[in-house]
Amino acid sequence: MAHIFEHCLEDPRVTLFEGDVARAIAPARGRYDAILLDVDNGPGGLNRAANDDLYSAAGLAAARRALAPGGCLAVWSGGREDSFTPRLRRAGFRVAEHPVRARRSGRGARHLIWLATAP
Length: 119
Description:
Blueprint: H1 21-25, E1 32-37, H2 57-66, E2 67-77, H3 84-90, E3 94-101, E4 110-117
């Protein structure tokens, strides 16, 4: 990844966590500037029931608490999930939806990335 992202992983502000993301988020209070979720197929196409909680009201509230003011929760999805934007808003986020293509060429499957900003 370093050659793609210009060595961003070498930045001393970056911490990588390998494990259950819910366990990293739950105890954190204002710790993270960004939380990036690329889990299963997104909030609407779950492959593992164990990940349901990440997208629930409680999971989104935990993510919001874990973010510093102005922090961003980014959620990738393999497709549109109409109920997710309102769920993010109910959790207190400002939300922007960004439709993207799977390939840089602008071709391929249509995906969606939600950027949810904590107040």
